[in-house]
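notes to self, project folder thing:

trying the whole complex as one job this time. last attempt i did each chain seperately and stitching them together was a nightmare. two parts in total, labels are on each line so i dont mix them up again. if this works i'll redo the older ones the same way
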Amino acid sequence: MEPIKSFELSKEYLESLREGIEIQDNQFITESLEGANVADIAAILDELNLDEAIYVLRLLSPSTAADILIELDEDSLIKVIREMEASELAALIDQMESDDAVDILILMPSKEREDVISYLQEKEKSANILDLLRYDEYSAGGLMAKEFIKANQNWNVVQTIEEIRRQAEKVEKIYSIYVVDNKQHLLGRVSLKKIILSSSDTKISDIYEPELISVPTHMDGEEVAEIMRKYDLESVPVVNAKNKLVGRITVDDILDLIREQSEEDMQAMTGISADIEESDSVFKISKARLPWLLIGVIGGLMGAQIIGFFEDGLSKYIALASFIPLVAATGGNVGIQSSSLVVQTLASKSVFNDTAWQRFIKGLMIAVVNGIVLGTFVFAVVVFIYGFESIFGLTIGLAMFCVVLLASFMGTVTPLVLDKFGINPAIASGPFITTANDLLGLAVYFGVAMTLLKL
Amino acid sequence: MEPIKSFELSKEYLESLREGIEIQDNQFITESLEGANVADIAAILDELNLDEAIYVLRLLSPSTAADILIELDEDSLIKVIREMEASELAALIDQMESDDAVDILILMPSKEREDVISYLQEKEKSANILDLLRYDEYSAGGLMAKEFIKANQNWNVVQTIEEIRRQAEKVEKIYSIYVVDNKQHLLGRVSLKKIILSSSDTKISDIYEPELISVPTHMDGEEVAEIMRKYDLESVPVVNAKNKLVGRITVDDILDLIREQSEEDMQAMTGISADIEESDSVFKISKARLPWLLIGVIGGLMGAQIIGFFEDGLSKYIALASFIPLVAATGGNVGIQSSSLVVQTLASKSVFNDTAWQRFIKGLMIAVVNGIVLGTFVFAVVVFIYGFESIFGLTIGLAMFCVVLLASFMGTVTPLVLDKFGINPAIASGPFITTANDLLGLAVYFGVAMTLLKL
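result (full assembly):
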């Protein structure tokens, strides 16, 4: 056995698979994919064109095809489900756990979604799906699956094992068995290990752990992720407002969520608008990148207007131009540092966090310290090394101090305000805010210069 | 039961706990913490001062104290272990799984580490720990635990359950049972679900799944995380060069690793040097933030030199100064976009990725498209809206084009080069590179201007 089973996942295999599809060598296709991990097959289908991918999916068993569908890139997935007949897609969705089914159905227009649901074989599954579709996609309710094992506290170990046997087909992975009372209220959990090590007639009520962390359906997915990380959970039960057990979230879904969200944050910070990868076409990538670049350019052009406004003063004191990049870069750096510290704190949500006011005061003090250090440093270099007169050094130093203060203020307040309005605070490090900071910095710089140098 | 058990975790409780410690009300302390989750207790101890935290730890049972120690912030943890006697610490480490023990021991100077290990009660544990200490902290070997359940393929279900019973104390969470041959070669896995649902005399060799993903000890932790995410694994076995099973990595450790690494990347991008939180003191935060700001400032001062060099030309054509921020900001934005796309691709490591050369050509084409669009746009605004002569518009437009090309090139090549040398490519979006890009951009801008405007 190889340390990592990535079977024949290679460009060469991809080529031979393409040929196999071309000449409809179905035997080669199915045999070469047999035993491969569904995530690997999905990675291959992502590389094929739509017709080829659908051709392969139709050759495989519904349960394998269903597992592959879940693992496809969102781009490929949307194309594939648009191409399939409602009945055909329903046959695959019949093989999925409810949360995966919902992840796919949510990508369809509601009319077609209803079509697919009407074709589902199991009444229970379509009820579960309709139930899950009510929740926000990124809330605990939207992340949870309705398939899990629960045991009544009055059962014994044998009855519980019977329930596991009954549900074994539907529930792929069992981490814990949730224990409920007669009214379905969540009481606690019992591990499979405990079940195995207890005698058959042991009552569940004697062995379950009542200390259990659960999350409400409305909790934000990011918060669920942080709870699962903090408490080392591999699955967490979801309860409704009446503390009735309605679903469970597993750690694999959380890993996907974390990855998605870190990509989104990165996107917010770099201003790349659409969900692109390096393998996309030149024009798709250019199109996704241009909007931010244009915002930055428009900001730069407005900056040119601001500087133009001070042109008279500038022509009298041409050296002022030399320090424009210094002021602009420092403002940008201070702003990004401040906002990312705030974003980090917002993400970790501790009860011991300072209040907004304390945070503001502290940010101000840090800005004052940094501003004094940097302002003094710049003053010293400008006067003693570059040999300018001291009033000019004072101008640049004071402008630095003001810009540091201003950028810290903007960098601290902007993410807090965004967060208050329910907007991802990471965009505070993105295009709009950065550009606005640059412009403010320029205005402050020239304002200080015009005043001190009496231009 | 509350939807989330965060017991009395509040500022008020923290105050009353402090009082309890002051007046040595041990009964209040132990009773109020009883049943609380260890992660919550750790969060409280992080808020206490060192003497208070140690006082509480010593009141609790060794197994609870050990669990809390693992969950402490690294800052607090280092202080606590420095304060404890070697024998006292050894008593706690005796209660931990080997990977957690190593995470703590690695923080100590090697002399003291040996002291602690010499006090350990279990010979097997100290052997395991010494073994794990050989691996790089962030490799699969450094992340794995030596505690896991393995079954010989020739055993039956009853023998396997016996083994689980024997190891139950040592192995906190059981996800899978790994199946080995007589020489300890990894053959596959069998789930607890399968064990429960099989009759007592079933042979393991008849029920285990041979399709199993394992990782080699030397694999980088980030890669392990990506494999566990991609294949939806809650634990992964680790094998040595001879495919012998030597450990297992669980998903909770991976969640911690992902968080640590995303914080590190953020740090690399924002240039905040030490591991700080918003709750740290004003001077600690200032000190951590100043180094990058200083790099930026020094870069800005060098920029002033560059511009000063062109001062004669600038005084003839004062409007050139107005467009300095435009050029600098665009260069910065293009550079960050390019490098973060490359970093994202490097992190996902697919076999279908383009080669470095293809990537380079593609990056160049994207840069040309973006450069033409932005250059033309700027030319049009400068000439038709701002009313400058067209040779000046051409100068600014062409300078934009060159800066976009240059920044794309630097943004693409830098992370690739860093990655080749085993350095975290995320720092390509950080202080040094950004500053270097700014300077290059300025030089290009004035170079183009001096040439076209014949200054």
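what i see at first glance: Chain B has a mean pLDDT of 87.
need to look closer tmrw
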